[in-house]
Amino acid sequence: MKKINSLALTKLLLDPRRRTILDLAKERPVTVAELAAAMEEKPSRLYYHVKLLEEAELLELVETRQQGNLVEKLYRAKKRQSSFRLDPELLSQHSDEILGEVRNVLEPGLRLLANEMKEGKSRPDKHVDLSISIRQLTGAEWREAHRHAFSSIGSQPSGEKDEEEVLTPEEADRKSKYAFVLLSYRIEDAEPPDE
Fold it and tell me: Exposed, middle or buried by CB within 10 Å (0-12, 13-18, 19+), for 75?
Protein backbone atom coordinates (compact mmCIF):
# COMPACT_ATOMS: atom_id res chain seq x y z
CA MET A 1 0.00 0.00 0.00
CA LYS A 2 1.47 3.32 -1.06
CA LYS A 3 2.19 5.92 1.61
CA ILE A 4 0.90 9.40 0.71
CA ASN A 5 2.76 12.40 2.12
CA SER A 6 1.15 15.26 0.16
CA LEU A 7 -1.98 17.07 1.32
CA ALA A 8 -2.93 18.07 -2.23
CA LEU A 9 -2.60 14.47 -3.45
CA THR A 10 -4.62 13.24 -0.46
CA LYS A 11 -7.46 15.61 -1.37
CA LEU A 12 -7.36 14.47 -4.99
CA LEU A 13 -7.50 10.79 -4.06
CA LEU A 14 -10.31 11.22 -1.53
CA ASP A 15 -12.61 13.03 -3.97
CA PRO A 16 -15.19 10.53 -5.33
CA ARG A 17 -15.66 12.37 -8.65
CA ARG A 18 -11.92 12.37 -9.33
CA ARG A 19 -11.62 8.71 -8.33
CA THR A 20 -14.37 7.92 -10.83
CA ILE A 21 -12.51 9.79 -13.57
CA LEU A 22 -9.37 7.77 -12.80
CA ASP A 23 -11.33 4.51 -12.81
CA LEU A 24 -12.96 5.28 -16.16
CA ALA A 25 -9.62 6.25 -17.71
CA LYS A 26 -7.89 3.12 -16.42
CA GLU A 27 -8.96 0.70 -19.15
CA ARG A 28 -8.52 2.84 -22.25
CA PRO A 29 -7.89 6.48 -23.22
CA VAL A 30 -11.03 8.63 -22.89
CA THR A 31 -12.10 12.14 -23.78
CA VAL A 32 -13.76 14.53 -21.35
CA ALA A 33 -16.97 14.08 -23.37
CA GLU A 34 -16.79 10.29 -22.85
CA LEU A 35 -16.13 10.78 -19.14
CA ALA A 36 -19.10 13.14 -18.93
CA ALA A 37 -21.41 10.66 -20.68
CA ALA A 38 -20.33 7.79 -18.41
CA MET A 39 -20.71 9.95 -15.30
CA GLU A 40 -23.95 11.59 -16.49
CA GLU A 41 -22.34 15.01 -16.06
CA LYS A 42 -21.84 18.02 -18.29
CA PRO A 43 -18.32 18.11 -19.77
CA SER A 44 -17.88 21.66 -18.47
CA ARG A 45 -18.14 20.29 -14.90
CA LEU A 46 -15.22 17.89 -15.47
CA TYR A 47 -12.51 19.94 -17.20
CA TYR A 48 -11.27 21.39 -13.90
CA HIS A 49 -11.00 17.94 -12.30
CA VAL A 50 -9.22 16.46 -15.34
CA LYS A 51 -6.73 19.35 -15.28
CA LEU A 52 -5.98 18.80 -11.57
CA LEU A 53 -5.48 15.07 -12.10
CA GLU A 54 -3.20 15.74 -15.05
CA GLU A 55 -1.16 18.26 -13.02
CA ALA A 56 -0.82 15.69 -10.22
CA GLU A 57 0.46 13.19 -12.81
CA LEU A 58 -2.38 10.77 -12.08
CA LEU A 59 -3.86 11.27 -15.53
CA GLU A 60 -1.86 11.69 -18.71
CA LEU A 61 -2.67 13.15 -22.09
CA VAL A 62 -1.99 10.33 -24.56
CA GLU A 63 -3.41 11.68 -27.80
CA THR A 64 -4.71 14.89 -29.35
CA ARG A 65 -7.02 14.70 -32.38
CA GLN A 66 -8.52 17.38 -34.58
CA GLN A 67 -12.30 16.92 -34.93
CA GLY A 68 -13.48 19.66 -37.27
CA ASN A 69 -12.82 22.94 -35.48
CA LEU A 70 -12.32 21.24 -32.12
CA VAL A 71 -9.28 19.63 -30.57
CA GLU A 72 -10.15 16.36 -28.84
CA LYS A 73 -7.83 15.21 -26.06
CA LEU A 74 -7.64 11.62 -24.87
CA TYR A 75 -6.52 10.88 -21.33
CA ARG A 76 -5.47 7.68 -19.58
CA ALA A 77 -4.95 7.07 -15.89
CA LYS A 78 -1.39 6.33 -14.93
CA LYS A 79 -0.92 3.03 -13.14
CA ARG A 80 -1.73 3.55 -9.50
CA GLN A 81 -2.83 1.73 -6.43
CA SER A 82 -6.48 2.08 -5.48
CA SER A 83 -5.71 2.24 -1.77
CA PHE A 84 -3.19 4.20 0.17
CA ARG A 85 -1.97 4.95 3.67
CA LEU A 86 -1.53 8.51 4.88
CA ASP A 87 1.89 9.43 6.19
CA PRO A 88 1.80 9.96 10.00
CA GLU A 89 3.71 13.25 9.67
CA LEU A 90 1.17 14.52 7.12
CA LEU A 91 -1.65 13.52 9.47
CA SER A 92 -0.13 15.35 12.41
CA GLN A 93 0.46 18.54 10.39
CA HIS A 94 -2.93 18.65 8.65
CA SER A 95 -5.21 16.51 10.83
CA ASP A 96 -8.27 18.79 10.74
CA GLU A 97 -8.15 19.26 6.98
CA ILE A 98 -7.57 15.56 6.27
CA LEU A 99 -10.33 14.47 8.67
CA GLY A 100 -12.64 16.89 6.86
CA GLU A 101 -11.81 15.18 3.57
CA VAL A 102 -12.36 11.74 5.14
CA ARG A 103 -15.76 12.94 6.43
CA ASN A 104 -16.60 13.99 2.86
CA VAL A 105 -16.13 10.34 1.85
CA LEU A 106 -17.97 8.85 4.84
CA GLU A 107 -20.95 11.19 5.17
CA PRO A 108 -22.66 10.42 1.84
CA GLY A 109 -22.58 6.71 2.70
CA LEU A 110 -23.88 7.32 6.21
CA ARG A 111 -26.70 9.54 4.87
CA LEU A 112 -27.58 6.87 2.32
CA LEU A 113 -27.62 4.21 5.05
CA ALA A 114 -29.77 6.41 7.31
CA ASN A 115 -32.28 7.05 4.51
CA GLU A 116 -32.57 3.34 3.74
CA MET A 117 -33.01 2.52 7.44
CA LYS A 118 -35.68 5.23 7.90
CA GLU A 119 -37.66 3.68 5.07
CA GLY A 120 -37.59 0.40 7.04
CA LYS A 121 -36.29 -1.75 4.23
CA SER A 122 -34.93 -5.15 5.20
CA ARG A 123 -33.08 -5.18 1.84
CA PRO A 124 -32.03 -1.69 0.83
CA ASP A 125 -32.73 -0.59 -2.76
CA LYS A 126 -29.39 1.18 -2.78
CA HIS A 127 -26.00 -0.48 -2.53
CA VAL A 128 -24.99 0.43 1.03
CA ASP A 129 -23.77 -1.70 3.90
CA LEU A 130 -22.26 -1.15 7.31
CA SER A 131 -20.50 -3.97 9.12
CA ILE A 132 -18.91 -3.75 12.55
CA SER A 133 -16.75 -6.32 14.29
CA ILE A 134 -15.08 -5.99 17.68
CA ARG A 135 -12.42 -8.60 18.31
CA GLN A 136 -9.77 -9.44 20.88
CA LEU A 137 -6.49 -9.69 18.95
CA THR A 138 -2.78 -9.31 19.36
CA GLY A 139 -1.16 -6.39 17.56
CA ALA A 140 0.26 -8.80 14.98
CA GLU A 141 -3.17 -10.41 14.42
CA TRP A 142 -4.73 -6.95 14.02
CA ARG A 143 -2.16 -5.99 11.36
CA GLU A 144 -2.76 -9.26 9.50
CA ALA A 145 -6.57 -8.91 9.69
CA HIS A 146 -6.33 -5.36 8.34
CA ARG A 147 -4.03 -6.46 5.52
CA HIS A 148 -6.33 -9.40 4.70
CA ALA A 149 -9.44 -7.17 4.60
CA PHE A 150 -7.85 -4.84 2.07
CA SER A 151 -6.46 -7.72 0.06
CA SER A 152 -9.90 -9.33 -0.17
CA ILE A 153 -11.37 -6.27 -1.91
CA GLY A 154 -8.51 -6.14 -4.37
CA SER A 155 -6.89 -3.06 -2.91
CA GLN A 156 -3.54 -4.70 -2.44
CA PRO A 157 -2.11 -7.83 -4.01
CA SER A 158 -2.04 -10.75 -1.58
CA GLY A 159 1.29 -11.22 0.07
CA GLU A 160 2.53 -7.73 -0.80
CA LYS A 161 3.89 -6.03 2.28
CA ASP A 162 2.85 -2.44 2.66
CA GLU A 163 4.80 0.41 4.10
CA GLU A 164 3.65 0.28 7.69
CA GLU A 165 4.84 1.22 11.08
CA VAL A 166 6.73 -1.63 12.69
CA LEU A 167 5.17 -2.99 15.86
CA THR A 168 7.45 -3.52 18.80
CA PRO A 169 7.58 -7.16 20.02
CA GLU A 170 5.51 -6.11 23.03
CA GLU A 171 2.86 -4.45 20.82
CA ALA A 172 2.79 -7.42 18.45
CA ASP A 173 2.10 -9.88 21.30
CA ARG A 174 -0.23 -7.80 23.50
CA LYS A 175 -3.94 -8.61 23.22
CA SER A 176 -6.38 -5.72 22.95
CA LYS A 177 -9.89 -5.10 21.68
CA TYR A 178 -9.99 -3.78 18.11
CA ALA A 179 -12.98 -2.35 16.26
CA PHE A 180 -13.30 -2.98 12.54
CA VAL A 181 -15.86 -0.75 10.82
CA LEU A 182 -16.56 -1.25 7.13
CA LEU A 183 -18.88 1.18 5.37
CA SER A 184 -19.33 0.54 1.68
CA TYR A 185 -21.69 2.21 -0.73
CA ARG A 186 -22.18 2.75 -4.43
CA ILE A 187 -21.12 6.35 -4.97
CA GLU A 188 -23.81 7.20 -7.52
CA ASP A 189 -26.51 6.04 -5.06
CA ALA A 190 -25.30 8.65 -2.58
CA GLU A 191 -25.07 11.58 -5.00
CA PRO A 192 -27.97 14.02 -5.09
CA PRO A 193 -29.82 14.10 -8.42
CA ASP A 194 -28.99 17.03 -10.71
CA GLU A 195 -31.53 19.82 -10.57
Answer: buried
**Domain ranges within the chain, ordered by starting residue:** 2-77, 94-190
Q: 2-77 architecture in CATH?
A: Orthogonal Bundle (1.10)
pLDDT in tens, 22-55: 989 998 999 999 999 999 899 999 999 999 999 9
The mean pLDDT of 136-155, rounded to a whole number, is 88
pTM of the complete model beyond 0.70 = no
